[in-house]
Amino acid sequence: MPEKSLSAPRGTADLFPPESARWSELEARIHRLAARFGYGEIRTPMFESTDLFVRGVGELSDIVEKEMYTFDDRGGRSLTLRPEWTAPVVRAVLERGLLAQAPLRLYYIGPIFRYERPQKGRYRQSHQFGVECFGFPGPEADLEVISMAWELVADYRMTDAVLHVNSIGDSACRPMYRNALLAHFAPHLPSMSEDARRRVERNPLRLLDSKDPADLPYVESAPTFEEFLCAACREHFEALKSYLVLAGIPFVVNPRIVRGLDYYGRTVFEITSSALGAHSSVCGGGRYDDLVRSLGGTDIPAVGFALGLERFVMMLRAHEGGAEPPRSGVQAIALGAQARAVLVPVVAELRRKLDAPTYMDYQDRKLLAHLKIADRNRARYALIVGSEELTAGELVLRDLEKRSDRRLPLAAGGVLAELLVEATA
RNA sequence: GUGACUGUAGCUCAACUGGUUAGAGCGCUGGCCUGUGGAGUCAGAGGCUGGGGGUUCAAGUCCCCUCAGUCACCCCA
């Protein structure tokens, strides 16, 4: 048996500096954003009973049919790595009885798993930030969650982001629209794509986002949902649109936004960016007023979204120039063993007291090599101690940006650190 | 699950129709330079050409399998 080289599983990725710092920064910003909107964080297990997703996401959805990481544990239970967050959140909230005190505002951030062929912006493990707002039937809650997603995008000045909104009706009017669509497409089906013919059986709404040129003329002439919305759904949608205008959030009404998961109804929305490749959506969400009941809870309306962090970071990169990160911190440079022995405790002290990185290379190198390392570390200061300094009882503090030296007395450790903290502040 | 393209040094890529010892740039280490930095120059280290099998006198190059990457389809964040 030949030895196999070890590699990360297909569709997964390792994250290293400096990329990992960008992620931390984004995550910190998300936590602050959610806090400002009054949302509390929920964390749920990374795997759940398979049945939860079958019931929550929909038996006929692609996720359940072919994308789940499902396995049996040693007790013979069928478990599944979560492919999305909403069903687990609803399960957790029901289990704890938290909906008794609805309204309830929760957000989550963490990994999801889908067994798919990887491509741009699509991985087998990816990460989502999302929110769930339970207990408000009205369009104010729709506006609230959309604002949150949009604020994140606007925060980073992503000028090519577009918000698409649509209404896909409720259980009263969707069947009527469905029938109208079927009636519209039925005579043309023979000349439409194979995919289209398949979709008719499964989910006629999906015909609307077909990309096949053969289908385009029929899709464009198809009736839109807006004509079929019942009075209640229409009123809800109109109110949301005027709220968006009042909030100054730019949007387009896109009758072809449908959403793939079974539980959505009324409001659906998406945020897209041209930086993202074939599937340009970075954030998708909407209202799911029937989901809680279908998972065994009481009749509680809900609205939320999920935002793909890998895709968001891709957008970020597309909008950033190659700006150099600012210099910060101190590179301690000891020339020789004696200097090193003096400097090591100073470094320890600095690391306790300085709110910036302190770097030190412990090998014997020339000053030149040490300074190159300082540059690579993007250190702001170099703290140099060699034989000259030792005899003079001094050290050199070099400002690497201004390229200027200062000499400071090489006093006892604690006092020295105080001095340096002050000098480098 | 389907299709196309691609796997050669740490990274980005060369190597005519199969032909001797697989090259370059960047990066790395060191010298030029007794101790002042993103530069220059010289030198050095670094490879079972993703893995396995086959064809051939001869395979980085052709064929098959496999793993992985990229992009697209299906679908989704």
Structural write-up:
It is elongated, with a radius of gyration of 29 Å. α2 (50-57) packs across α4 (86-96), α5 packs parallel to α9 and α12 (337-353) packs across α15. It folds into two domains: 19-173 and 229-319, BirA Bifunctional Protein, domain 2; 330-424, Rossmann fold, CATH 3.40.50.800. The mean pLDDT is 87. It is built from 15 helices and 16 strands. The protein has helices at 19-36, 50-57, 62-67, 86-96, 139-155, 174-185, 194-202, 216-220, 231-246, 291-294, 309-319, 337-353, 367-376, 387-392, 413-424, and strands spanning 40-41, 47-49, 69-72, 78-81, 104-113, 125-134, 162-167, 252-253, 265-272, 281-287, 302-308, 330-334, 358-360, 381-385, 394-399, 404-409. By secondary structure, it is of the alpha+beta class. It has an eight-stranded mixed sheet. A five-stranded mixed sheet has the order 13-12-14-15-16, sandwiched between helices. The structure holds one RNA strand of 77 nucleotides.
Helix residue percentage: 25-40%
- Round the mean pLDDT to the nearest integer and report it: 87
Number of helices: 15
Instruction: Characterize the overall form.
Output: elongated
Structural class call reads: alpha+beta
CATH domain fold name of the largest domain: BirA Bifunctional Protein, domain 2
CATH H level, superfamily name of the largest domain: Bira Bifunctional Protein, Domain 2
* The CATH class of the largest domain: Alpha Beta
